[in-house]
């Protein structure tokens, strides 16, 4: 992939389209914008969203006027009822020309760090487990994002996938990701096949489940499987304050899948104010032989281990949708943790 094609992400004959939000301003969808959602956020409008991946349905819009194209007509974020009502997912739709859409904007979704499109060069990669690899890319300018956010990586064959940063923002322009190889997965396997020097595109940062810098509450980070990266980034940001309690739970299927401790071990307060709790769910798997630590589903362990203390904490979690949904039920319904203290990304 050349740097130019990595950046472009769509056809060269793209023309700018002006998109008006009924009762809420307008934005321009340009050649660098993969979707209406990305164009709106880049234009400083708070179009509601979560995953940018077509999975969650948070970015549903009604197209009132103008022609649009769907980038993924079967995206699971739209229910049959949504489709009957003619709704579209802003993250999977592009305007073919000027258009008017209907959506209730939300000031909380206005990006705190303006998303940009740039090219990245792979510098190095190293295995963390049998199927999670950490990638380090370099960009020409500073890497600007908030701990816990993600970027959309633009890969060969027009593939776009979201990956969370595991490092901290930095002036040197390094972007680090911890990516799980999905059996048969197009993007993850493509990334695992890349050698240093490979060039891809990045569009970001995005995501609302980022560190709340102004909070002094104790922190609980919960990562399942591929959800390690944003939790490591948040722990790195919080770990700089050894006076703040941080409990970090990592749930892996077998003992061989457990990781993350090495990333935390060098942080101030490790073993004291910063505590790492690995959890294994499949004790009967031969790869868990000899495991004597915490076991069960990570959300159950968090509930048992932290209990009512969760109501006082700022809670961050990331991982597969079933884990995230079990945690939502535990925190919101069972423990009645105030919604404002719960920050999560579901990895569709
Ligand atoms: C906010 C967020 C952050 C994430 N962070 C991480 C991370 O840090 N580490 C990590 O390992 N994974 C992360 N993921 C998951 C990652 O984005 C990929 O879903 C995963 O790597 C599997 O991709 P794949 O192409 O290998 O698998 P595939 O099975 O080829 O693709 C699966 C995913 O691709 C998308 N998709 C499928 N078909 C289409 C289509 N036609 N058009 C558009 N999209 C399509 C869907 O999101 C689907 O879940 C994150 C996901 C989200 C939403
Ligand atoms: S943000 Fe569009 S479906 Fe999740």
From TrEMBL:
It comes from the Bacteria. Residues 115-212 form the FAD-binding FR-type domain. Residues 17-107 form the 2Fe-2S ferredoxin-type domain. InterPro entries: 2Fe-2S_ferredoxin-like_sf, 2Fe-2S_ferredoxin-type, 2Fe2S_fd_BS, Beta-grasp_dom_sf, Cbr1-like_FAD-bd_dom, FAD-bd_FR_type, FNR_nucleotide-bd, MRET. GO terms for molecular function: 2 iron, 2 sulfur cluster binding; oxidoreductase activity. This is Oxidoreductase. It comes from Zavarzinia compransoris.
């Amino acid at each position: 992939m050349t740097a130019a094609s990595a950046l472009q992400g769509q056809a060269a004959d793209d023309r700018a389209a002006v998109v008006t939000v009924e009762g809420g301003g307008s934005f321009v969808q340009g050649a660098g914008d993969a979707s209406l959602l990305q164009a709106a956020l880049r234009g400083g409008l708070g179009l509601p969203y979560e995953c940018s991946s077509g999975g969650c349905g948070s970015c549903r819009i009604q197209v009132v006027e103008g022609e649009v194209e769907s980038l993924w007509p079967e995206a699971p974020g739209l229910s049959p009822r949504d489709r009957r009502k003619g709704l579209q997912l802003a993250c999977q739709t592009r305007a073919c020309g000027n258009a008017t859409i209907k959506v209730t904007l939300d000031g909380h979704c206005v990006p705190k760090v303006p998303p940009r499109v740039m090219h990245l060069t792979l510098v190095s990669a190293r295995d963390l487990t049998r199927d999670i690899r950490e990638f380090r890319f370099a960009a020409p300018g500073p890497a600007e994002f908030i701990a816990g956010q993600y970027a959309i990586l633009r890969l060969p064959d027009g593939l776009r996938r979201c990956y969370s940063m595991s490092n901290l923002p930095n002036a040197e322009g390094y972007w680090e990701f911890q990516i799980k190889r999905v059996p048969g997965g197009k993007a993850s396997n493509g990334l695992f096949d890349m050698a240093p020097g490979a060039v891809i595109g990045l569009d970001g940062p995005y995501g609302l489940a980022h560190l709340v810098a102004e909070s002094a509450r104790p922190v609980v980070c919960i990562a399942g499987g591929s959800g390690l990266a944003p939790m490591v980034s948040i722990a790195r940001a919080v770990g700089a304050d050894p006076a703040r309690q941080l409990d970090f739970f990592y749930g892996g299927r077998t003992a061989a899948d457990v990781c993350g401790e090495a990333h935390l071990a060098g942080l101030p307060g490790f073993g004291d104010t910063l505590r790492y709790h690995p959890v294994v769910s499949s004790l009967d798997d031969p790869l868990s032989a000899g495991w004597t630590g915490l076991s069960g589903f990570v959300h159950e362990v968090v509930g048992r281990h932290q209990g009512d203390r969760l109501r006082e904490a700022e809670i961050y979690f990331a991982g597969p949708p079933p884990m995230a949904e079990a945690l939502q039920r535990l925190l919101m319904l069972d423990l009645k943790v105030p919604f404002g203290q719960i920050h999560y990304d579901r990895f569709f």
